[in-house]
Amino acid sequence: MSINHKRKNKFLWKTLKDGLVSTHGNHKWKIGKWDKVSAPLEICRKGFHASERILDAFFYVKPGCIARAEVRGESIDHGDKQCWPEMRIVKAWKWTKNDSVAMAVYAAELALHIYEKRYPHDKRPRNAIDAARRWVKHPTGKNRLAAHAAAHAAADAAHAAADAAHAAADAAHAAADAAHAAAHAAAHAAAYAAHAAADAAHAAATAAADAAHAAATAAADAADAAAEISTKIETWLRRRINRLEEIRGES
User: Fold this and answer.
1) Can you point out the beta strands (E) in 17-137?
2) End-to-end CA distance of the chain, in Å?
3) CB 227 within 8 A of CB 181
4) Which residues partner with 28 through β-bridges?
5) How far is CA 23 from the centre of its chain?
6) pLDDT digit string (tens) for 139-196?
7) Using an 8 Å Cβ cutoff, are 147 and 101 in contact?
8) Rg of the chain over CA atoms, in angstroms?
């Protein structure tokens, strides 16, 4: 953790609850309006928080919307998030359950090849991903039940894979966690998005990501895979914004 010297304004990413409300403290934001807190700042306790990457913001707050935030003043840099004395929301977009499932499916797909290389005959994670994808396109009751069943099967696969490579997975998981890397990034991004709404389709996508993660963390090149996966998820998120409904400020 480091303290930055006073610098020019910069732009970061922030995730908020529906209605542009902060999860911690229930601060209500208005687009374009500067808000300020007095010093001293304290990470996670006092100040306005945001991240360089959307993916990092997702780790801390289950989103109802994604916001682009402008900040100024002297800040605390905590690595994957920063704490600032002044902030304003310059633009915001709605984030829906459908977006969460789509993100979870994408994240799981990125790690799936690692799992299937290790377990080529186990199609349970792929089936769960396919079921979640069908729900995204056609959110019917039938597809929801199918996703639910696939989720349980993929969860069984995840547990079996984790048990088979427990020692290696523990070591790789610790390294990945420290670096926000490996399929840990993919699995947690998917899990966090999926957890935002307790839905069977979300569970299916999350279980699929967990299954792929179990194999990925056991791989010797987990850290390299992690960096690539997290970068791709971040790129996907930034492209996804172009499809989201923008939240307009008061006229």
Assistant:
1) 35-36, 48-50, 65-73, 76-77, 82-84, 86-94
2) 40
3) yes
4) 21
5) 16
6) 788 877 777 777 666 666 656 555 554 433 443 443 333 333 334 334 444 443 344 3
7) no
8) 19
